[in-house]
């Protein structure tokens, strides 16, 4: 199988390892909550997910991932509970289905202090805070981690989250992306356009630390945001964090093709996923971007044993602790379908989604049938929802799981995976101790770099700390900066 996995040559990808094969990028996928994608495992004696409110959990996890040269720790986040199932938040709370949730940004500096290479991709929303505040926080984190920060951009959709900040209902889906597009442009202005590179030039004799003439005041007048300020943080190693985005709806794909450098995708079938990947690459190419520069990460949950039999036995043990209702709570929340109201063996379709606010791409992914899942019924969903969050689960020896990953890389045209866990740190220990050596044996996984790299360099190669020249954010860099004209009432800002 290894011979068939050379899906891209070294000349076509910065991660070619000199052997004609493509480096598979691996992120560890976690969340500052008890029940992430496999609710119920907190009952398992080997699981430590209930200790995430202890800083030692994050420090030990970071050390483990560093040992395996994992690309990044990708941290999901949410701003409200899941209350679609039975029209109540009760089962979300009772089953610890992504509840409670702490702030994912807080442990980052502690993890950075015990690692040199691990990057951190943090989920934060464009819907809940002014761009200036987010710009300050991410610039600070990029400094403290020496450039190892990525941002997973979300627009937020939960009614519960909007109610928590005093709004009765989420903004309409496509409008959220138009707002997010402007939000990003404000951030580029702050991160890329406000400070020259040589502002800080300490001159003790003349009592001068920095040159105010080289810090531009950003005067933004848009539909959604107004800004009149200089950025308060000096340029960090990357200036703009590595930009992740999730979502493959029409609006989400247009946004991703414009702004994303890495895209988090989810599907139970690589054949269903591939057209979505191709669409975003084509949209990016129309904007003058190199379509191969956008890296796609698919959700993937491995259960690994030293042999296939050992892995299957491990899976049977894990099933004893699953919370089926917890999984259904997540499914209902993501899709807007209250699955508690649908007969067990009735087909579930997109028409069952009566909630206007949901994750459109997930609804489509998990109501679309394939050769792997010919019917989606509550019974089928219940069987799959409690482990892996309805994403692909691969059970087997390192060789079996590596074969499956190669197949996804080849058939879906993706670049890597966000690896979900069933138990933590157990799943990640299996990845580091069993899977990574197998991938290295096949020539798909590199050794730890000799010198630390930034988050962007780990994706694009040494020396690429900042945005690529073909990225829209580059037009806001200090030396070429031109302020956008003010928004005129009635003009809809386009999604490029």
TrEMBL record:
InterPro entries: Diverse_substr_monoxygenases (IPR051260), Luciferase-like_dom (IPR011251), Luciferase-like_sf (IPR036661), NTA_MOA (IPR016215). GO terms for molecular function: monooxygenase activity; oxidoreductase activity, acting on paired donors, with incorporation or reduction of molecular oxygen. Residues 43-409 form the Luciferase-like domain. Gene3D superfamilies: Luciferase-like domain. Signal peptide: none annotated. Coiled coil: none annotated. It comes from the Eukaryota. Residues 467-485 have a biased composition (Basic and acidic residues). Residues 445-496 are annotated as: Disordered. Belongs to the NtaA/SnaA/DszA monooxygenase family. This is Bacterial luciferase-like protein. The lineage of its organism: Eukaryota, Fungi, Dikarya, Ascomycota, Pezizomycotina.
């Amino acid at each position: 199988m290894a011979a068939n996995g050379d899906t891209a040559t070294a000349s076509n990808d910065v991660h070619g390892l000199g052997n004609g094969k493509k480096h598979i990028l691996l992120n560890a996928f976690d969340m500052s909550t008890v029940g992430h994608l496999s609710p119920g495992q907190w009952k398992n004696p080997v699981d430590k997910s209930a200790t995430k409110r202890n800083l030692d959990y994050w420090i030990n996890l970071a050390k483990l991932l560093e040992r395996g040269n994992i690309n990044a720790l990708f941290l999901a986040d949410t701003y409200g509970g899941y209350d679609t199932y039975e029209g109540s938040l009760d089962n979300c709370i009772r089953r610890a289905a992504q509840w409670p949730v702490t702030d994912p940004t807080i442990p980052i500096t502690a993890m950075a202090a015990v690692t040199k290479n691990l990057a951190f991709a943090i989920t934060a929303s464009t819907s809940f805070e002014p761009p200036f505040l987010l710009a300050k926080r991410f610039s600070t984190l990029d400094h403290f981690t020496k450039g190892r920060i990525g941002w997973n951009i979300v627009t937020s959709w939960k009614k519960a989250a909007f109610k928590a900040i005093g709004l009765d209902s989420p903004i309409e889906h496509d409008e959220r992306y138009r707002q997010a597009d402007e939000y990003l442009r404000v951030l580029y202005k702050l991160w890329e356009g406000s400070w020259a590179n040589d502002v800080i030039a300490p001159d003790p004799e003349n009592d001068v630390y920095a040159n105010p003439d080289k810090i531009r005041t950003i005067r933004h007048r848009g539909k959604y945001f107004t800004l009149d300020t200089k950025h308060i943080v000096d340029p960090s190693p990357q200036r703009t964090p590595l930009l992740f985005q999730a979502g493959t709806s029409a609006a989400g794909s247009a946004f991703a093709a414009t702004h994303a450098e890495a895209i988090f995708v989810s599907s139970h079938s690589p054949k269903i996923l591939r057209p979505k990947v191709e669409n975003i690459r084509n949209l990016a190419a129309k904007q003058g971007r190199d379509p191969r520069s956008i890296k796609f990460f698919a959700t993937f949950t491995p259960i690994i044993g030293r042999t296939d039999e050992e892995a299957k036995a491990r899976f049977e043990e894990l099933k004893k602790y699953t919370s089926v209702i917890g999984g259904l709570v997540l499914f209902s929340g993501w899709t807007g379908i209250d699955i508690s109201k649908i007969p067990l063996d009735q087909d579930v379709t997109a028409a069952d989604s009566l909630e206007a606010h949901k994750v459109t791409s997930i609804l489509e992914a998990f109501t679309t049938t394939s050769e792997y899942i010919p019917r989606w019924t509550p019974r089928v969903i219940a069987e799959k929802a409690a482990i892996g969050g309805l994403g692909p689960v691969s059970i087997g020896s390192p060789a079996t799981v590596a074969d499956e990953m190669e197949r996804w890389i080849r058939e879906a045209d993706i670049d890597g995976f966000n690896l979900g866990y069933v138990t933590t740190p157990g799943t990640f220990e299996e990845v580091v101790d069993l899977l990574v050596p197998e991938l290295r044996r096949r020539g798909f996984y590199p050794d730890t770099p000799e010198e630390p790299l930034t988050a962007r360099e780990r994706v694009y190669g040494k020396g690429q700390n900042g945005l690529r020249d073909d990225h829209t954010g580059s037009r806001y860099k200090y030396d070429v900066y031109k302020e956008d004209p003010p928004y005129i009432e009635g003009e809809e800002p386009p999604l490029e």
